[in-house]
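User: Need the bound-state model for heme C:
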Amino acid sequence: MTSHDSRSPDFDKSHWHRQLLEHRSALFAVLVTVGISIGGMVEIVPMYSMSAGPETLEGVTPYTPLELAGRDIYVSEGCYNCHSQWVRPFRDETLRYGEWSRAGEYAYDRPFQLGSRRIGPDLHRVGGKYPDAWHWEHMRDPRSTSPGSIMPPYTWLYEKTYDVEDVQASMTAMQTAGVPYTDADIAGAGATIDAQATKIVSNLAATGANAQQDKQIIALIAYLQRIGVDGRNAIAAQDGGQ
Ligand code: HEC
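Assistant: Bound-state model below.
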């Protein structure tokens, strides 16, 4: 029995907080609930009262089917274990990577790939940073483009193929999660994929690479070249090109 115990003879009965509140558990519970509700409202109400909110960035559009396929490969290969996709608003980061990441850029990233580890560099502004051929070389043998790199080679992506039906299933899942793919987008995925993959293959062929358009590496390159691009353009338009 301690002196703080209410059963103790020297318990300080005169303290107003104990007498008025702590000894009246029902009243105390009601007051705690009221207190927490006010705190909650202060946090939650502003979110509902914003019309569109700063979270929306005009010009951010969903991934194309091929890019979505590449994103699925990115997730299944666990690239997020070494790469973040989140440029923080600090000078050292924006100098290295570019424009810092805005919330609205992740609108169609389900689930988002923020990542929590940076064994490799952040990838949120990698879209358009290198030509397709750089990625082709780098993914096959990271040290060929980045001497001393500890990134593992991903040679199987040059053998394994992606499946249009799987991409369509991914699109349907995204649709359920609120990404605005239409049924026509999903039905026509095969043709859309074909058109985009052909372009990448011809870019690669121009540098002498013998690429086939149904290989996973093509989808991954499409995805890497897209990351952060819409956001960067939207931010530039919003800031008047700053
Ligand atoms: C073991 C950690 C590790 C894993 C896993 C990993 N990377 Fe990397 N990555 C690195 C490191 C380190 C670098 C920096 C050196 C280099 O360019 O290779 C890098 C660089 C890169 C770059 C160039 C970034 C830039 O701005 O120069 C890209 C693109 C990239 N990785 C993509 C991927 C993709 C896609 C995957 C998954 C298929 C992946 N990485 C998996 C460690 C990793």
